[in-house]
Amino acid sequence: MNPTRIARPGVTTRLWGLLRVAVLSVGCLVWASAHGQVLRYGGDEAFAPFESTGADGQPQGFQIDLMNALGRELGREVQIELQPWPATVEAFRAGRAEVVAMVETRERRAFARFLPGHASPAFGVYLPQGMSAPRAIQDLQGRAHAVLDHAPMRESLERWLAGIDGPILELPDARAALLAVQRGQAEMALLPQAYADPLLAQGEA
């Protein structure tokens, strides 16, 4: 049975209003504007509505509009390159991108300077069809859930699910987490909607 996201009004707000992870701009804009005419931005090619590659092959999304507005404000050309996320992080660390937008973690503070957050991607609870939805954090107690095996997710769980015991299945991507729910390996998946919703819409999970 394919998983479905909780859609009843109020459920996701009550539960996941506590679990929104801030997206932050990374890098030093002052440095970038002072040392070159081009401001190089790196992003995720598949993280709509924040940033993604459109059907026409062009970057689109909220972050793209924000960076273009910033370029106009600074009087600088903005060069945008969207790639698979691991390649974007590598480009940022290698100095090929001066600004990216990503969640702040302890590990990332070692190589990035974070500016105040400007957006929060929504999380969703993905359940088998017909399963009753959790209404509070405490409802996760003892229930097996699949999550992304990423540092931002681990740190979020540490902060907001402290004291909640239950088997946690860490998986490499949203598709694997949704398949774990479909196969009965987890009762639910806790995922960013930007990753999981397109998979469900395309029938890939």
Can you describe this structure in just a few lines?
With 205 residues, the protein is of the alpha/beta class. It contains 7 helices and 12 strands.
Parts with pLDDT < 50 across at least 5 consecutive residues: 6-34
Tell how many strands the DSSP assignment holds: 12
Topology order in helix (H) and strand (E) letters: EHEHEEEEHEHEEEHEHEH
> How many alpha or pi helices?
7
Class by alpha and beta content: alpha/beta
First-last Cα distance:
10 Å
Note the overall shape: elongated
Give the mean pLDDT. 79
Using the CA coordinates, give the radius of gyration.
Answer: 18 Å
Please characterize this protein's 3D structure.
By secondary structure, this protein is an alpha/beta fold. It has seven helices and twelve strands. It has a five-stranded mixed β-sheet with strand order 1-9-12-10-11, with helices on one face. The N and C termini lie close together (10 Å). Mean pLDDT is 79; it is low at 6-34.
Give the SSE layout.
Blueprint: E1 3-5, H1 11-16, E2 24-26, H2 29-34, E3 38-44, E4 46-47, E5 51-53, E6 59-60, H3 62-74, E7 77-83, H4 85-93, E8 100-102, E9 123-128, E10 145-148, H5 151-160, E11 168-171, H6 174-182, E12 188-192, H7 193-201
Parallel strand pairs: 3-7, 10-11, 10-12
Antiparallel strand pairs: 1-9, 2-8, 4-5, 5-6, 9-12
